[in-house]
Amino acid sequence: MGIMSQAGDLAMLVGKGRKQFLTQLRPENKLQTHWGVLRHSDLIEREWGSRVKSHSGIEFLLLQPTLLDILLHTKRRSQIMYPKDIGYLLLRLSVGPGTTVLEAGTGSGALTSALAWSVGPNGRVISYDRRADMQELAARNLDRLGLLERVSLRLQDIELGLEPREIPAVFLDLPEPERYLTQVHQTMQSGGVLGSILPTTNQVSRLLAALDQHSFGLVEVCEILLRFYKSVAERLRPEDRMLGHTGYLVFARAIQAPEPVASAPPDG
């Protein structure tokens, strides 16, 4: 017998046309769908991967949601980062169990959730935002996933400075990240990784010029394109649409400022 669902678990029900429903299992709750009602009490202590039926006899798959599923179902008030971009930035920032990472621009908390998931119970995410309403939404999203205790939400403009010091990885989801590079460099450990996402090339150009003036090196700019294929053996081919440009990713390493050039001794 496989792993069984439990009360309090996040569950994903997949119905006709791969329509997905994400819900937290509570014995007293019901999931209302176009194809009937599913009682949570009928879903708890069922093996993941089971086929279950609504009250009208329509079949669903009961699955544990992946991190990708969770991010795509994040409740939002602003544009969230796409999973295709998040996956690469987790690698570039070297975010893993036990690490500490700082982000500015909490938003709805999609990236915050991915960071908190990745650092594990012994890691820490520090997230800054100026808007209380966005951080309140992010806190609810994090709490729903059981990740809130891994995150320190700070309601503050980062122009006032960042804490703590010696942070190995920082990510900026802000429209003008070049304005805050002094504060960012001060909080980062030497050699640490800075990342940012920007939607337009002129914003990227301004950031590149500023990075060169604030002791950042090994700069990288990229974008990630994702194309799915029709998963039918007899007619395997690309889908008619693809997930193209969502943003430019910029990465750099914090380096030490160059030593001042010593003046030549006077003659004689």
**How big a fraction of the residues is strand?**
25-35%
Q: What is the domain tally?
A: 2
For CATH, the homologous superfamily of the largest domain is named as Vaccinia Virus protein VP39
Q: Globular, elongated, flat, extended or rod-shaped: what is the shape?
A: elongated
Distance between the termini: 90 Å
Spans of 5+ residues with little confidence (pLDDT < 50)? Answer: none
Q: From the coordinates shown, what is the CATH architecture of the largest domain?
A: 3-Layer(aba) Sandwich
Please compute the radius of gyration using only Cα atoms: 23 Å
Order of H and E elements? EEEEHEEHHEHEHEEHEHEE
Q: Give a short account of the largest sheet.
A: 7 strands, mixed
- On the 0 to 100 scale, the average pLDDT is 91
- CATH first level of the largest domain: Alpha Beta
In percent, how helical is the residue content?
10-25%
Tell how many strands the DSSP assignment holds: 13
